[in-house]
Every structure is written in structure tokens, then in C-alpha cells.
Task: structure prediction
Amino acid sequence: MKQVTIYADGACSKNPGPGGWGTVLIYEDKVKKLSGFQEMSTNNIMELTAVIQGLKALKEKCRIEVFTDSKYIVDSVTKWLPGWKRNGWTTSSKKQVKNLVLWKELTYLSDLHEIRWNWVKGHSGNLYNEECDKMAKDQIETNLKKQAGK
Result:
């Protein structure tokens, strides 16, 4: 089984507001970078989208190390997700899980692979985390400039 490393990060201007995401996939000596923009989003939606897009880029079952600076994602996947699913996608306070469509998509994609989830401190010099952050912010800046030029 292939061993793949995924770094993922999301950013949002104003939160909610224009959002960007970036992901870097590493397999052996190959590095693939993906990024995107959403006109109206939140930080958490962009963080989730970055991981989802990284997983969607894989064409076969892999053993994956995911690195993200989002405690929201790491804590949700490693601590709360099983309970959410058992309780019909509701939280311990009986509220529907936020970003439900994205969580269901992430769960579906995650189940196709063997994944280890890792939190990395943001803005601390981690090369690929910094790259993902830059890609996400560049997406926002580039798309806002395009919109301003309309």
C-alpha cells in the first residue's frame, strides 16, 4: 500500500467571508499542490475542504499521514466523530454537527484509507504547513483582486 503524506490548511478573510484552502500531497519524491477558493466560507469549512480535496486526489487505497494546524479537525476526527455518528450526527449538547455535509464527505473518504491524524502548530516554520497556508491566502488575494477588477 502506498504511503502518502497530506498537509492541509484553510484560511478565511473576515470569517465568514472569502475563503481559500491549500493542500500538499507527498508520495516518495513527488509533491502535488492543490488549492482553491470559495466566495463565502468560514475557517473551519476551508480547513475541512483542504483535507477533503487532498483525499479526493488519491486514486487508490493508501496509508496516509494527515498534518493540519486545525485542532477542530484533529479533535473532531480522533475524539468526537464516533459519538456524532452513533448519535445521528448530533453533538453531546444535542445540536446538529456543524458543516455536516463536509463531515460526511470526509468520513466517506477517510474510510477508503488508513489514516493517522496529526496536529502541527501553525506558523511555526513547518515547511509544508507554511506552504499550504500561503496557497490558501494567495487564493483569497488573487480571487478578490479578480472580483475587484470586474
The chain has one domain: 2-148. The two ends are 47 Å apart (CA to CA). The mean pLDDT is 96. The longest helix spans residues 127-148.
